[in-house]
Amino acid sequence: MQAEPAFIELYDYVKDPLETRSLAGNPEQTERMAAYEKALKQKIAEIAACKVR
């Protein structure tokens, strides 16, 4: 069983290179965050499916 992350962060490095304001909770970023979460889960599943020899 995987634990949920303690927190999620998303930064705009062009506008905020020092990471002072996370955009993760911004309603305008909901679709982007969902797409990133889906891609991450797919990658984790791919890695988990690999067999070590």
Automatic annotation (TrEMBL):
<dbReference type="InterPro" id="IPR017850">
    <property type="entry name" value="Alkaline_phosphatase_core_sf"/>
</dbReference>
<protein>
    <recommendedName>
        <fullName>N-sulphoglucosamine sulphohydrolase C-terminal domain-containing protein</fullName>
    </recommendedName>
</protein>
